[in-house]
Amino acid sequence: MASTIPLDTLKASTVHSPKMKSVKALAESASLSSLPSIYSFTHNPHDETIISDDAEDSVPIIDVSLLVSGTPEERSQVVHQLNKACSDWGCFMLINHGVPESLTKAMIESFQEFFNLPEKEKQEFHGNHVMDPIRCGTGFNPSMDKVNLWRDYLKCFTYPEFHSPNKPAGFSEIALEFSKKNREVVTVLLKAISKSLGLEESYIDKATNIELGLQILAANYYPACPEPDRAIGIPSHTDHGLLTLLVDNGISGLQILHKEKWINVNLLPNALFVHIADHLEILSNGKCKSIEHRALVNDKATRMSIALPHGPSLDTVIRPAPELVDKESHPPAYVEMTYREFLELQQTGRLRSKFG
Predict the structure, then answer these.
(1) Is 70 exceeded by the pLDDT of residue 5?
(2) Where residue 167 sits, what CATH number does that domain have?
(3) Fe2OG dioxygenase domain location, by residue (predicted)?
């Protein structure tokens, strides 16, 4: 059996952001001519591997509509494509997904309006705890030796209970519809991925109690940076949860690590970028790969991304599926704990490893 990290003495973990203005306000300051030292990020050698734009390093593209309305042969082919994308890449680009382009644009515009709010109004939604259902901040990460990330963010828990700031006007209504449409996409994907693993179609749903699964709606705001080579939007990491769906405002900056090469991800128009996350890797006992990725910044334009992590229910213990475990060749290789415990430990830098 995989080991379980003891949490008997774990107290409520908090994330204390420094009392400082947002990165947006700093970037727009007339006095800013160079990067403040607190934002200076030192890349380690692992982060300096070759960057590739080669055609052969293109992220797989999946037409999800064929899972819903395709012929049996087409559905089977997409399931096979998903299996390869999840095992070889840990990510894929999703087209014909059913989320209206107009809704995505409205969501991006609404987040822009939020970040444009006066500093005092945004501070109303400042949170301290990783489980706060609404939390906005400057990008401070306590696990990074007190170096600030060049980003602002807003995170809202949108399922199983919906939470949203009450400003700007219309934000809640758009966020609710956007979250619902993306959750419908995840429902289709998880059933197909379950089949691709040789499991019954509803296995992942049942094993993760997905009816009560946590959905987060998060926006990352990366203003133009005076010295982008010395800063970082988000350093290399993997996501918690099962799947993360992501869109952006058309400005590049997302990179994924594939076969020891950093690959620039440029989304197709109205496509969703899908990350395999840690808990799908755990459940599949390593057959699906949680993708390592990072966000860079630039000195010319503001980039905004919207990410929707979808995870198990908070109190469900996630472990490798017994059908995918073999004591001789494929023993269980991951830590067992509830999703809530994992999330708190990861977000506060206390998680030793997802591996046993």
Answers:
(1) no
(2) 2.60.120.330
(3) 212-312
